[in-house]
Amino acid sequence: MVLKANDELRHEWDEDPHWRESWYWNFSDPENQIGCWIYLWVVPNKPLKSGMLVCLYHGFAADRNSTEAAWESPGHLLKGDDGSWTYCYREDVEPLFAEDVDDVELCGLSVKVIEPNKHHKLSFRDGDNASFDFDCEYMSQPWDFADNVHPTPRWLAKDRYHRGWKAKGSLTIAGKTYRIDTTGDSDHSWGTRDMGIFEENNLKTYAIQSKDGALSVKAQMLGEPGRELPRGYIAHGEEMWAVKTIEESSRYLENGRMHDISLRVTDVAGHVVEAHMDAMYAAVAGGGPNIGFEGAGVWEVKDWGRCAGLASCWWSNDVTAKQLHEGEAGKTEASAD
Question: Across the chain, which distance is largest between two alpha carbons, in Å?
Answer without folding.
Answer: 51
